[in-house]
Amino acid sequence: MTPWVQRFLIANVLMFFVQQTVPGVDSMLRFMPSLLLERPWTLVTYMFLHAGFTHILFNMLGLYFFGPRVEQRIGSERFFALYMISGITGGLLSFYNPAIPIIGASGAVYGVMLAFARFWPRDQIFIWGIIPVEVRWLVVIYTVVSLMGWGSGVAHFAHLGGFLGAFLYLLWLERSAGTRKFRQVATAPPAAKDAVLGNWRNVNRAGVHAVNKDEVDRILDKISASGIGSLTPQERLFLSNFVPPDDRLPPPVS
Question: Is 106 tagged catalytic?
């Protein structure tokens, strides 16, 4: 369990308990788009309320299954931003129906799901534990369901807003200074790329988180068999997160 996934799970469960025991919590913390200027805090607090046990169960299962691997991949600070931005964008897109209040973490969880599909599109999820579906197609299916408006009492625009917020945030990450390393590794000449990963033999496999261990092992085995030049830009970026600094190389210049 990664730090922010655990915190969000605990926060949602605690708030669900508060909902059941403290009268008036729903009306004070749910998000009504038409009342945003009067109650701006509800654009955040609505994400921690749920309409019933089934509602919170499926949202928390989604966060539990998709969240840890995404947080491990992009880091805890960025995962926190991804979750919050997705939920807030979900609320903002709900202005399509300004007089209808919304509650639930679905927008935020859908954003996490989109991030998972961005990094591991062909991983399979078993719906109801039976039907195998690749995550990329799961996102497509949920998008179609939301666009068609199937299902009564469902905040479809919050779901679409979660997808949209996550997409824009991930796009910004890829283009921001924080991901300059990705562009440098992807576009550098072969000799420079090899220098970036030159210390790959010293990767501490035992210290790699379980959600990334198989991928790290696969890439290291690929280098052993075919050399660093056989790696794709995405594999280079991924492995660079685990290669310790090489003291023989000059420090990077900003």
Answer: yes
Q: At what angle do helices 106-119 and 135-148 cross, to 10 degrees?
A: 140
At 94-125, the pLDDT tens digits run 988 888 899 999 999 999 999 999 999 999 88
Which of 94, 146, 156, 159 is catalytic? The answer is 159
Q: How far apart are the C-alpha atoms of 155 and 31, rounded to whole Å?
A: 11
What's the one-letter identity of residue 162? G
The pLDDT assigned to 129 comes to 74
110, 166 contact by CB (below 8 A):
yes
What does the angle CA 125 – CA 240 – CA 78 come to, to the nearest 5 degrees?
Answer: 60
Q: Are 112 and 166 in contact (CB under 8 A)?
A: yes
**pLDDT given at position 180:** 54
Nearest to 88 by CA among 119, 136, 46: 46
Q: What is the pLDDT of residue 232?
A: 81
Domains parsed from the chain with CATH numbers: 3-175 (1.20.1540.10), 187-240 (no CATH)
Q: Could you say which residues of the chain have pLDDT below 70?
A: 177-196, 209, 211, 245-254
Per-residue pLDDT, 99: 85
Residues 63 and 1: their CA atoms lie apart, in Å, by 11
Tokens 């655990």 identify what position? 6
> Residue 27 — φ and ψ, nearest 5°?
-65, -30
pLDDT at 211: 64
Q: Is 50 a catalytic residue?
A: no
How far from chain centre, in Å, is Cα 36? 26
Residues 6+ apart with CB under 8 A from 154: none
Measured CA angle at 161 (ends 44, 148), to 5 deg? 135
Q: Which of 86, 94, 106, 146 is catalytic?
A: 106
